[in-house]
Model the fold of this input.
Amino acid sequence: MSNTIKIVIAVATVFFSLSTFIALFVIIYQRRQLNYKKSTEQLRLAFQRELLNTQLEIQEQTFNNISQEIHDNVGQVLSLAKVQINIMNETENISREMLNEVKENIGKAMSDLRDIAKSLSTDRIRSLTIQDAVAIEAERITKSGVAVVNIEAEGTERPIADHKKLILFRIIQESLQNCIKHANASNINIQFFYLPDQVCIQINDNGKGFSVEEMMRESNGLGLTNIKSRALLAGGTSSVESRLNLGTTIKINMPYE
Done:
């Protein structure tokens, strides 16, 4: 066999081996890309399901809180108005003062219901900045007389992605309800710190406080766990600090995007 033929055979063998290697590499690469896309899609779908579940849980909790608030506040005002009307039915002389009292109570109930409806509207929350949405909620709570809620801000406010803003607002809303119902707080301060890459929110109350460690060990520590898991799902972090008779501080850090 001549050297030329040997060289041709060697080159052909090398070319065939190289072609086979390239083909195998392309096939393996394509399979890995396909598996990566499938994994990415599965993660995306899992994240969307978790996000939807979280939003539904938050919505359910919000509805429960609002239902209790309607029962405790609006229901009591309307019950008082009903009693006043019953008294008027049994009275021959109905004074203008009595009519005005009934009118004021019914007006207060209608106003409270309008404010509650606004706090439930996701479209309204999306149309506002997070600080404006929280300010409306703070005004509603303060106007109800159950607690005084103050708001402070440092830095320049920046827009937050809609899905994060909605979750963040519901976290703050639930935290405020916890301050009122469980901590028996009469004064709540909310501070917004606008940093270059994230907003930091701090909620302080003058309530009775509690042991965070003990609360987390008990079943009723679920509320604290929910706050942390929901903030984490939206790409943020949170922490809760509390001491008996010294109030509670909730901190939430949330990236803008």
About this structure: Residues 3-89 form the longest helix (87 residues). Helices lie at 3-89, 96-120, 122-127, 130-144, 162-181, 212-217, 222-233. The longest strand covers residues 187-194.
